[in-house]
Specification:
Structural class: alpha/beta
Largest sheet: 7 strands, mixed
Distance between the termini: 57 Å
Shape: globular
Helix content: 25-40%
Strand order of the largest sheet: 16-17-18-15-14-20-21
Number of helices: 16
Length: about 550
């Protein structure tokens, strides 16, 4: 992909706002992909729409080769100390892609020792900020150079549409690295006046060895959200990948070392939460933890950090985001945007608009048009051109979503469309819509993390504000209205870290992201993310006979 096109694609998560339709781009499938049977080209009939057996297609075989599967410690790829490995699985088929080194507490300790040495004795925190920025810029160039292979590996391991990975997420990773490269030499302290003869400096220093734990739904983007600011501030890192999606982080970390990153600065441990994750959170020589994942696991991370060395923690956790459609809205546009807000990334998005509140005057029309849109949703092999929805991540999530769908039916919500698995192979689920959803239902309160849209009815502004805020979560919200006064009222009243007005899922590098309430602590991206990785130190020096104060 040309660099200019890459930068344009990365300007926002999907550049989808108002009239945008979340269908895949018409770009041809690149040479990185080929049919498993050797056939050339793609037949239109192979694009399976909801209601047909998407998983019955012959899976496309990605030509990208699985590269590194070992742990990355002190600049080298090494086996786990135990010698154990675990499988990472293709969600299209349930078949094993590769076996990956399974790190545990001993490996975490080895990685922390390497990171500590790199911080205390190595060149990274002592390097000029300009040189650190040059390494991050070279890294961004390498990401662009390997765009198609990185995207193919991400799709293979995760199940998200290839066109989403190649044209949105990989370019966004490069954009994030350039954004944080720009920050490296703009982190500075202050000289502040004192009430007496003292010279006072306020320094912003790197915090030290940082532990980071990323999720499986956006492996590359979460890697960028975590690694970018930590490196820009001069820290060293031990990062644990999600056991479902370990491959892409290993691939791009090799590129980062090729760009000139010193050994020991970034260490990658693949493994499981109860072993590697817990060891990292409770390690006495880790200075800070950053975690993205479920709220329940976030509580465990916070407790382990407190019980060990009281290390500071930032958490980006779950959500149950309201998407509010007012009666003045253009219904066709609102339906399209609400569809995108929920079904994007197979519904596996922490900020998904999973509570769709629609004004009673337009409710019936909205439900019928939402059903029609869901029935047109293209579900199938994520490597195929035009596919909007691939499989869920794994069997556990697949079965969990189906249980939530059953709960919705059992609780009396109206199943408008969908409600079942799709095909006999892989983890595909029909795009599902419930209407007549009540606030007390399980599907209204808990994070489903799947392609299940719940549509609620409301009749006035004060009512919808109260109901939208009646959640333990506060990660994001969407507002769709043509009335500026209504938009202003809602944006100030909704208790959420991000409110999108007439758009959704806009994730530019400079926009802070994080939640209220049980959706987390702290912010990712933007200038606020740098604060997570800096210590503030006051240096006060006595002055003798100063000419001025």
């Amino acid at each position: 992909m040309a660099a200019a096109a890459t930068r344009r694609a990365a300007s926002s998560l999907a550049s989808r706002c108002l009239l945008a339709r979340p269908a895949a781009s018409p770009a041809a499938v690149p040479s990185a992909l080929r049919r498993a049977d050797g056939a050339r080209g793609l037949l239109p009939g192979l694009l399976q729409r909801f209601g047909t057996a998407a998983a019955a297609e012959e899976p496309i075989s990605p030509s990208v080769q699985v590269g590194e599967t070992q742990l990355l410690i002190n600049g080298k790829f090494v086996d786990a100390a135990s010698g154990k490995t675990f499988p990472t699985v293709d969600p299209r088929t349930g078949e094993v892609i590769a076996r990956v080194a399974e790190g545990d507490a001993e490996d975490v300790d080895r990685a922390v020792v390497a990171a500590r040495k790199a911080f205390d004795e190595g060149p990274w925190p002592r390097m000029t900020a300009y040189e650190r920025s040059r390494i991050l810029l070279r890294f961004a160039d390498l990401i662009e150079k390997h765009n198609d292979d990185i995207a193919a590996l991400e799709t293979w391991d995760n199940g998200k549409p290839y066109e989403q990975a190649a044209h949105i997420e990989v370019p966004m990773l490069a954009r994030l690295m350039r954004y944080y490269a720009g920050w490296t030499d703009k982190i500075h302290g202050l000289i502040v006046p004192a009430d007496g003869p003292h010279h006072v400096q306020v320094l912003h220093e790197p915090i030290g060895v940082v532990g980071q734990i990323i999720p499986w739904n956006f492996p590359l983007l979460m890697y960028g959200w975590k690694v970018g600011p930590a490196l820009a501030c001069g820290n060293t890192i031990v990062l644990k990948t999600a056991e479902q999606t370990p491959l892409s982080a290993l691939y791009v970390s090799k590129l980062l070392h090729e760009a000139g990153l010193p050994e020991g600065v970034l260490n990658i441990v693949s493994g499981f939460g109860p072993t590697a994750g817990a060891a990292l959170a409770s390690h006495m020589d880790v200075d800070k933890i950053a975690f993205t994942g479920s709220t329940d696991t976030g509580k465990v991370i916070l407790e382990l950090s407190a019980r060990s060395n009281l290390k500071p923690v930032t958490l980006e956790l779950g959500g149950k985001s309201p998407f509010i459609v007012m009666d003045d809205a253009d219904i066709d546009q609102a339906v399209e945007l609400a569809h995108f807000a929920l079904f994007f990334n197979q519904g596996q998005c922490c900020c998904a608009g999973s509570r769709t509140f629609v004004h009673e005057r337009v409710y019936d029309e909205f439900v019928e048009k939402s059903k029609a849109r869901a029935l047109k949703r293209v579900v199938g092999d994520p490597f195929r051109k035009g596919v909007e929805q691939g499989p869920q991540i794994d069997d556990e999530q697949f079965k969990k979503i189906l249980r939530y769908i059953k709960s919705g039916v059992d609780s009396g919500a109206t199943l408008v469309t969908g409600g079942d698995k799709l095909g006999d192979k892989g983890y595909y689920i029909q795009p599902t819509i419930f209407s007549d959803v009540q606030d007390g239902m399980k599907i209204a309160q808990e994070e489903i993390f799947g392609p299940v849209q719940s549509i609620f009815k409301f009749n006035d502004l004060n009512e919808v504000i109260k109901r939208a805020n009646a959640s333990q979560y506060g990660l994001a919200a969407g507002v769709f209205t043509n009335n500026l006064d209504t938009a202003n009222t809602l944006t100030r009243a909704l208790r959420a870290g991000t409110v999108w007005v007439n758009c959704f899922d806009i994730f530019d590098a400079a926009i802070p992201f994080g939640g209220y309430k049980m959706s987390g602590i702290g912010r990712e991206k933007g200038i606020d993310s740098l604060k997570n990785y800096l210590q503030v130190k006051a240096v006060v020096t006595a002055l003798k006979n100063p000419a001025w104060l």
